[in-house]
């Protein structure tokens, strides 16, 4: 999560900037607060908000730059507009702007969801809102808010992972690793880390107890096969490489694979496909995570269908009469994709939480090089590899 403080301004150009976004269907007005009787009127124009803010700011002739304009941006679509609105409201409270007139406008025109905050630095008594160490406080307030949310989210993610139907310990690890956690077995516990710190431990006995209850849902697997066969006719199942962004002039090395079919299944049905293989080499196995509320299971790819059939593009080609188009997918740089506005920025790094209302299209984690040949037990291989490395295979995003 990033908080970006835009340069103070003598005018309230932030109002017109954001209302232009709304009019072009690139933004949505989420909240208007503390504008007094103005809020009771209908069909307000941008100038009405500007006039109100200018009148408030005119009570102090000493302040040359009364506009307060900030942006809170998350990574990708990890936070909804409602979540960002709640976060921005609490952040304003921490910054001393809770009673100030302000607008919150959600923007949806970039790869990263973000919300703009426009207010005035002058309070109702004509005094300036405290801006001492403003950049540092902006980070501190956001960090505190995110930390509180993160602790709750971590507990929720662990509880959710243990509720899934899985047959091996590595499958339990994948449920958390694909959300940015790293796991390391230490005696009879798993150490679970995130944000560079150990966050929790989970008793291995809990994982084993859940693993032993695994039952293969034959009917669901048959349903999934039918779904994949149907969707593979309209969405290309051929795998394409995924790579991390690199500086200009450098060649990006593939770190994993995905496909149009896999992305569609994830986005529309919550069916997550993780391809396994060494970076730069074709995948030779896969795991399926069914996030459907009624099923919530992890399957070895071999339980569903052979990899060769899953990624075979012949049905798609026969249905569309065209050659597959293989392109390198670009990864999103969450720290840069807001608007190109001059700004002072403060960053709070987090990782996209999954399992929080809906499914994201990019569930594929090339950083996790899981060694899962279909004819070899995945628990034996992952256990052996993790033991050799003395650390968990993690998603380091």
Automatic annotation (TrEMBL):
Determine the domain of life of the protein's source.
Answer: Bacteria
What residue stretches are annotated with the MobA/VirD2-like nuclease domain?
A: 40-145
One Pfam family, please name it: Relaxase
List the protein's name: Relaxase/Mobilisation nuclease domain-containing protein
Q: What is the lineage of its organism?
A: Bacteria, Pseudomonadati, Bacteroidota, Sphingobacteriia, Sphingobacteriales
């Amino acid at each position: 999560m990033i908080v970006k403080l835009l340069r103070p301004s003598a005018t309230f150009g932030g109002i017109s900037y954001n209302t232009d976004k709304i009019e072009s269907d690139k933004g949505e007005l989420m909240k208007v607060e503390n504008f007094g009787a103005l809020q009771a009127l209908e069909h307000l124009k941008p100038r009405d908000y500007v006039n109100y803010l200018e009148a408030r700011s005119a009570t102090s002739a000493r302040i040359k730059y009364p506009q307060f304009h900030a942006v809170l941006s998350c990574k990708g679509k990890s936070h909804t507009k409602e979540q960002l609105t709640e976060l921005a409201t609490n952040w304003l409270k921490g910054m001393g702007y809770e009673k100030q007139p302000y607008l919150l406008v959600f923007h949806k025109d970039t790869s990263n969801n973000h919300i703009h905050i426009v207010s005035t630095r002058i309070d109702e008594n004509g005094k300036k809102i405290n801006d001492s160490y403003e950049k540092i406080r902006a980070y501190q307030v956001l960090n505190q808010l995110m930390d509180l949310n993160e602790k709750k989210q971590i507990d929720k993610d662990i509880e959710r992972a243990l509720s899934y139907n899985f047959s091996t310990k590595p499958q339990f690890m994948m449920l958390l690793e694909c959300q940015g956690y790293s796991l390391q077995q230490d005696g009879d516990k798993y150490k679970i880390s995130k944000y560079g710190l150990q966050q929790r431990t989970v008793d291995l006995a809990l994982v084993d107890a859940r693993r032993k209850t695994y039952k293969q849902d034959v009917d669901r697997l048959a349903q999934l096969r039918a779904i994949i066969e149907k969707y593979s006719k309209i969405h290309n199942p051929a795998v394409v490489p995924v790579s991390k962004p690199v500086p200009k002039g450098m060649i990006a090395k593939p770190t994993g694979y995905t496909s149009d079919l896999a992305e569609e299944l994830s986005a529309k049905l919550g069916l997550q496909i993780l391809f396994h293989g060494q970076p730069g080499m074709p995948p030779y196995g896969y795991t399926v995570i069914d996030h459907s509320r009624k099923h919530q299971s992890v399957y070895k790819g071999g339980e569903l269908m052979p990899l060769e059939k899953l990624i075979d593009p012949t049905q798609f080609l026969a249905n569309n009469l065209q050659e597959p188009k293989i392109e390198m997918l670009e990864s999103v740089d969450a720290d840069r994709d807001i608007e190109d506005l001059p700004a002072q920025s403060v960053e709070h790094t987090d990782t996209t939480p999954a399992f929080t209302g809906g499914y994201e299209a990019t569930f594929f984690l090339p950083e996790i090089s899981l060694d899962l040949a279909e004819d070899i037990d995945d628990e034996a291989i992952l256990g052996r590899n993790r033991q050799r490395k003395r650390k968990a295979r993690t998603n380091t995003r």
